[in-house]
């Protein structure tokens, strides 16, 4: 068995936050058992964590090259670890996987957030028999440290008992086979997990079990909700309105309004919605500076701000509330609405100051998958990225709104002032560069990739229509030819370039 992540990425903290990783140079039972307990308690609903035995820490990162473990000690360490885990109450056994990294043997322990929390363990874990007689305590993570819970934290932890986040709960109305093997394999391939090697040759239940997507007794195994959200073709069958709706409303009366609905696995609908917004909503303004070769360039909304805001909505939405995530575009602003609002640890003052530091996550597993897919950033970094991208674009700062009951969360991104001014001017020099005739070759390349990603293989005429042209232009034909030569694109039928059924395909790298 392997882990459903890329271990090299884990070692170097590329996707998993530092707070969820613990490095240990050698097998040292007491601090490791304390950390296993803390990860299982998952005090902040972050999704547990990982312990790397055989990797020393230096300034918060692994010391390279890795020290590794004596290969002859691996089996003894695993046996002793299993015995010491019996001291944890209730019993908690992590997923234990040996890895050889650059010729060095290490043990990786994966400790998901436990469904039987709170957990406690001995304060003193003796190497000799009798360690179970030590007094027991609750342990939690604070930042990148494992600490004994104080009286207040202990009460809060006990109050969280059986409060399993919705995305990590068993779904008794679905079957394991509702998760599709191709989607599981595609995810494992994308993140670079060793589980991918045999994913298509094993049963869905076996692969999903290794990914902690299945629970229950052997005679009644069922999928957990997050497995259906990411690995079933139609999550909306189990979670009503688990979808994103984009409404482009150019006029308050609704004249000319368009609506697009994006469904499917959460990562797919998010990517598709973002691709649609980038291709059809986001526009660029370019104007020359008088008496200068310079030009002023700005977007109506910077893509990175939209990406972060919409990704955060998918991450933090409650899928128990049967309402979609809605993106509403008007001539003055873009609004991204999701339900419910933030927890009360984020005050009205925090919202007004645009400082949104969530103390506890609503969906611990959704965030885990989105981070592995590199769709969302690490903990509490989304809002700063939104702010910086709006500022860099010259836009007004966004606002974040909710009500007293915290029933909704609304992100408002003001349109860039240039696009407000342009509405009152018919000057052709101030038209946005999204108009097909004004696109440069680099923009066309990006739009070609987006169109093929979103719609699949297209003929040249279909591609031209997807980019907003009435027919294929010389510039578009030249860009396609360049991308075919560079290997970015290929023909569906390479041996028959003039076939009437010919399609242009995106080469996935």
Textual characterization of the structure:
With 509 residues, the protein is α+β, with helices and mostly antiparallel strands. The protein has 4 domains: 7-161, Methyltransferase, Cobalt-precorrin-4 Transmethylase, Domain 2 (2-Layer Sandwich), CATH 3.30.950; 176-232, no CATH class; 244-430, Heat Shock Protein 90; 436-506, Arc Repressor Mutant, subunit A, CATH 1.10.10. 31% of the residues lie in helices and 18% in strands. The protein is built from 16 helices and 21 strands. It has helices spanning 7-11, 29-41, 74-85, 151-159, 181-191, 204-210, 225-231, 266-280, 303-316, 348-353, 364-372, 382-392, 417-422, 441-455, 460-466, 474-486; strands spanning 21-24, 49-53, 57-58, 61-62, 95-101, 104-111, 120-122, 136-142, 145-148, 214-215, 222-223, 244-248, 258-262, 284-288, 295-299, 325-329, 333-338, 399-401, 409-414, 489-491, 504-506. The strands form 7 sheets. A 6-stranded mixed sheet has the order 13-12-16-17-19-18, covered by helices on one side. A 4-stranded mixed sheet has the order 1-2-6-5. A hairpin with a 2-residue loop joins strand 5 and strand 6 (104-111). Helix 8 packs antiparallel against helix 14 (441-455) and helix 9 (303-316) runs antiparallel to helix 12. It is globular and about 80 Å long. It starts with 6 loop residues before the first helix and ends with a strand. 35% of the residues are buried. Mean pLDDT is 88; it is low at 422-438.
């Amino acid at each position: 068995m392997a882990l459903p992540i890329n271990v090299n990425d884990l070692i170097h903290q590329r996707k998993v936050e530092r707070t969820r990783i613990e490095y240990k140079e050698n097998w040292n039972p007491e601090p490791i058992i304390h950390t296993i307990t803390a990860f299982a308690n998952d005090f902040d609903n972050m999704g547990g964590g990982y312990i790397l035995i055989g990797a020393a820490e230096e300034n918060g990162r692994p010391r390279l090259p890795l020290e590794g473990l004596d290969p002859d000690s691996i089996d003894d360490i695993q046996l002793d670890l299993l015995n010491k885990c019996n001291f944890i109450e209730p019993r908690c056994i992590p997923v234990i996987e040996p890895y050889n990294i650059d010729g060095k043997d290490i043990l990786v322990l994966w400790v998901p957030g436990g469904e039987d929390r709170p957990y406690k363990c001995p304060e003193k874990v003796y190497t000799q028999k009798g360690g179970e007689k030590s007094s027991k305590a609750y342990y939690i993570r604070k930042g990148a440290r494992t600490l004994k819970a104080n009286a207040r934290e202990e009460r809060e932890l006990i109050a969280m008992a059986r409060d399993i986040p919705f995305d990590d709960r068993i779904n008794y109305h679905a079957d394991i086979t509702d998760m599709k093997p191709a989607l599981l394999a595609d995810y494992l391939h994308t993140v670079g997990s060793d589980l991918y090697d045999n994913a298509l040759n094993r049963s869905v239940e076996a692969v999903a079990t290794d990914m902690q997507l299945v629970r229950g007794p052997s005679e009644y195994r069922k999928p957990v909700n997050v497995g259906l959200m990411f690995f079933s073709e139609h999550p909306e069958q189990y979670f009503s309105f688990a979808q994103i709706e984009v409404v482009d409303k150019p006029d308050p009366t609704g004249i000319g309004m368009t609506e697009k609905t994006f469904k499917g696995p959460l990562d797919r609908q998010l990517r598709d919605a973002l691709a649609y917004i980038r291709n059809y909503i986001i526009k660029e303004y370019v104007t020359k500076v008088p008496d200068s070769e310079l030009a002023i360039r700005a977007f109506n909304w910077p893509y990175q701000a939209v990406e972060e805001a919409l990704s955060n909505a998918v991450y933090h939405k409650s899928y128990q509330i049967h309402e979609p995530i809605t993106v509403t575009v008007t001539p003055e602003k873009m609004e991204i609405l999701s339900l419910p609002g933030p927890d009360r640890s984020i005050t009205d003052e925090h919202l007004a100051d645009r400082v949104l530091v969530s103390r506890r996550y609503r969906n611990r597993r959704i965030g885990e998958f989105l981070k592995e897919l590199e769709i969302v950033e690490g903990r509490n970094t989304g809002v700063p990225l939104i702010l910086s991208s709006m500022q860099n674009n010259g836009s007004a700062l966004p606002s974040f709104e909710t009500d007293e009951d915290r029933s909704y969360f609304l992100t408002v991104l003001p349109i860039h002032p240039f696009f407000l001014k342009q509405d009152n001017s018919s000057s052709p020099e101030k038209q946005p560069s999204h108009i097909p005739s004004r696109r440069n070759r680099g923009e066309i390349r990006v739009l070609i990739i987006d169109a093929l990603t979103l719609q699949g293989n297209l003929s040249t005429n279909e591609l031209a229509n997807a980019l907003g042209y009435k027919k294929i232009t010389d510039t578009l034909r030249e860009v396609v030819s360049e991308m075919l030569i560079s290997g970015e694109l290929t023909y569906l039928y390479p041996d028959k370039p003039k076939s009437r059924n010919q399609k242009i395909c995106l080469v996935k790298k």
